[in-house]
Amino acid sequence: MPPATALRSALSDEQLQQLVAQVKEVDSIELKLTVPEPAQMSTARALDMDPLQAQMRQVFFLETPDLALDKAGLVVRARRSQKKGDDSVVKLRPVVPSELPKAIRRSPSFGVELDASPEGYVVSGSMKGVPSDGDVRKAFVAGFPVRKLFSKEQQALFAEHAPKGVGLDDLTMLGPLLVLKLKYAPVDFDRKVVAELWLYPDGSRILELSTKCAPSEAFQVAAETRSYLASRGVDLATEQQTKTRTALEFFAKQMANGSKAGAQTTRKPRATSKTRRSPSKTRQSSTRRGTRSKTSTSRP
Does residue 287 surpass a pLDDT of 60? Predict the structure, then answer.
């Protein structure tokens, strides 16, 4: 959670001008700080976190084995939340707000957010969706079509920016990752703080602290938050980690090693013997239909 002076000093004059211009065009700003594992327990005590008040979540990422979406600036995620239901997102990162199509920018399901950490910032655009409760689990466990977790707007955004020939049902469902999310207001701090503890299959953990604010108050809130955390003994100079990057790299390594743990392909199962077509009919129908993809290769 960088203060105004720290964030400014870390950027060149040109980068600072770009930041100021983009701040005016985003919908919200989230200030983030990750805490290294050795300091996570002491930080939780210092900030008076109550783990029993945390919400449990399961997070799934959808990707190709070679992380083609990540290389194209796409993040596709589905999530189950305790007592809240399922949600999904198709995210473009990074984006320049002024270059986004007006139709997408006007959508009530689309938002632009600037994430800032002590190591810099990134602007992303997210199209959110709300699948029916239970569909995310069915997609992972029972082969429910992945595309049905996403709205028509999300599917269109994905098709516009996905690598050529890659569809939603071609993706591998990675996860789940268990996440504990605690949103609370510390007694001696006048802003709400969110603490997320991400638990990875190899036993590693990422603890992220964050707070959101309006673009107009970003630098002031960053300075106040830094001051509060420093007064509680939280080290603000540690190397930062990103939750999504850590997850994707972990699962990519698993897939490269041939492990199936934590990964589920999303293609439909083959037809049973009762419904399977004859070979000749199958060849004829597939020839008539064709299978060429029309997805765009444009980038955010």
Answer: no
Q: What is the pLDDT of residues 244-273, one digit of tens each?
A: 999 999 999 988 887 654 565 544 444 444
**How many domains in the chain?**
1
Q: What kind and span of H or E run contains 111?
A: strand 110-117
Does 290 fall in a domain? no
- Asked if residue 116 belongs to a domain, the reply is yes
**pLDDT tens digits for range 44-74:** 999 999 999 999 999 999 999 999 999 999 9
Residue 143 CA to residue 264 CA, distance in Å, equals 9
294: Cβ contacts below 8 Å, ≥ 6 apart: 159
Distances (CA, A) of 277 to 247, 256, 271, 289: 40, 35, 9, 15
Is the residue at 293 inside a domain? no
**Which residue, 165, 155, 135, 158, is CA-closest to 60?**
135
% of the chain at pLDDT higher than 70: 82
DSSP 227: H
Q: Which domain does 157 fall in, by range?
A: 4-264
Closest by CA to 40, choosing from 243, 202, 197, 260, is: 197
Residue 278 domain-assigned (yes or no): no
- In this structure, what CATH number is given to the domain that contains residue 171? 2.40.320.10
